[in-house]
Amino acid sequence: MSELKQSKYIDITTDYGFKKVFGSDTNKDLLINFLNELFRGRKVIADLYYNKNEHVGDTEDIGTVIFDLTCTADNGERFIIEVQRTSQVNLKKRMLYYSSKLIADQAPKGNRRAWNYAISEVYIIVLMDGFAMPDAGEGKCFLHDICLCYRDHGKIFYDDLGFIYIELVNFVKAEAEFVNDLDRWLYVLKNMSSLNGLSTYLRKPIFEKLFQLAEYSKLKPEEREMYNVSLRNKWDAESIRSSQEELLKRAREKAKAEGKAEGEAKVKSDVIKNLLSLNKFSISEIAEVADVTVDFVKQIEAEKAKGK
Question: What residue spans of 105-171 are helical by DSSP H?
């Protein structure tokens, strides 16, 4: 495969780039620093261990990067973090499933009475690159820190299960606006591949190491090949997502202009046919993307099979 025209630094939001920067013991100080910034003092990680995760590479999650980590805090507490860089399809349900699995997997094979549900804290951290938080409204928040709360008054009900969603599309700070290292991390995550060097605003030892590690010229030939494949995969995913978002936008505009439900249904059926043709999404995923029922997708699938 021929090489792509490359910038000085790799895109660390690609699958390969994310693993290269954050996925090894040699560089775990980078991941520890990043995670500590995300917790904003609520937790301080002193060390972490990369677990072997059984659901890495689920067939329907091709390209998803998952780190399953056992972390030790500075006070000796141990807790589990799962870091994901994933797509937007069924995002909330998918994260609930993964968190539930991390909790359930802690149960011993026997003697559960003695164990007495001594569940470790579990946190899911999701890096959202190129798409918005589902149902987030019109706000431009780039960090969603979520836990279980009482609906009526907002008091925390259970603080040992948390979700942190990083919405990079909403992070728009310029370098001169940085107030902490979290700003610096989100800036380099979003812009690394377009930067030409380490600016004054980023000149700290942790980021100096990051920039040295992310230099494209320092990759071995086989590493460049893997990165190029990963970069193409990211571009393909972004192209698909962009085209589907445009079709959905047209559906809404057409339905509004015509003032008829069938106008929206017609264009949504086109969206569904397009998604079915890709052979990359389940029926339920297509239903969520197109905002229709599963039965409606099955109906379009049957019509498509008949050549209508």
Answer: 112-115
